[in-house]
Amino acid sequence: MEWTRDVSLGQWIVEGTSGHLGNGVNDLVPRGFEAYARIPHPDDIGRLPVLPQVVRLLMDHTSTPTDATAAIWEGWGGLVSSGGRATLMLGEVRAYQSFLAQALWALQQQWWRLRSRFEPSPQPGSGILPAEVATGPKLEMPDRAYFLARLDLHDLAEDDWENRVLWADPPLTENPSLLWPDDRAWVLATEIDLDWTVVAGSRDLVRALVQSGLRTVEIPPTTDMS
Q1: pLDDT tens per residue, range 123-149
Q2: The 3-state secondary structure of 128-159, one letter per residue
Q3: Which of 33, 99, 110, 132 is 20 to 30 A distant from 123 in Cα terms?
Q4: Is the dihedral of CA 135, 183, 58, 14 positive or negative?
């Protein structure tokens, strides 16, 4: 597994989608696939909690399971700089812990604001990403940009995938926003503002997803998912 600056790996997705950010299927995944499906996010927006189960199934429908690319949204806290990670971690304390922890979070937030007035903003490369990647090219799509990682799908198919990936940031490692194998047999898209993941692929793949028990439904490419 490694970061790559070769954003041309995802250019076929840019060229195959609609060219604008929206709620349509082909705003997220390319045109021209045999079938499309959507998988719900039961408890969250922008996060597929059953990622390993889905990837295990996807691996059966590609000839290149050990050679794939994941696109990670640039906006996740802590990815580019340590400043973003600090903000994210304080927010998580507020969201998930007790009243006492919330009070602590408020004090820490005031400290962070005071500190930020006197210290320069953390530079790109001070977060999870290496500096040469954080300051390098990104896969540009309408209103979204992504860093790319080369990986073996087996890593995402394991239940502890959140600790395996290059962008690991427990306790909440984010899903790839886009995922595809080198043979381009399918594309998985998890848009950060939607509560659905969309998969484009063969009819056999979509049939297998629908029959998987993951509440997957087949959808036409004209579907509006707003």
Answers
A1: 766 679 999 999 999 999 999 999 999
A2: CCCHHHHCCCCEEECCEEEEEEEECHHHHHCC
A3: 110
A4: positive
